[in-house]
Design brief:
Elements (H helix, E strand, L loop, with lengths): L1 H11 L2 E7 L4 E6 L4 H18 L22 H13 L6 E4 L4
Antiparallel strand pairs: 1-2, 1-3
Helix pairs in contact: 1-2
């Protein structure tokens, strides 16, 4: 799943400072043109393709919530806080990508 998120960012030319795939959800901070919902929908599309290709889920099963939390980060401070939370604020790291650590 983490590779799928990184691949979609590369495809669209989006900057991905951090992404964290948990057992029940995914959180990421992305610098992109356009609405946050566009990024979220692109992630969902790419991730479901990766799950189906790996045969990790039943074909056609709904594995995503109808929507999700997609919000704007208008200041460097709000982005910094969001990056810190996604990277370190959720307990023991699972599938974690941090751009500076790559």
């Amino acid at each position: 799943m983490l590779k799928a998120i990184r691949d979609v960012c590369k495809h669209y030319g989006w900057s991905l400072p951090v992404a964290h795939v948990r057992t029940s959800h995914v959180q990421a901070v992305v610098e992109a043109e356009g609405k946050p919902e566009k990024v979220m929908n692109a992630f969902k599309t790419c991730a479901i393709r990766a799950l189906n290709a790996a045969r990790l889920d039943a074909p056609g099963r709904r594995c995503w919530a109808r929507h999700g939390s997609a919000r704007w980060l208008f200041t460097q401070e709000s982005a910094r806080k969001a990056i810190g939370y996604v990277a370190k604020g959720q307990g023991e790291p699972m599938a974690l990508f941090v751009a500076d650590a790559d």
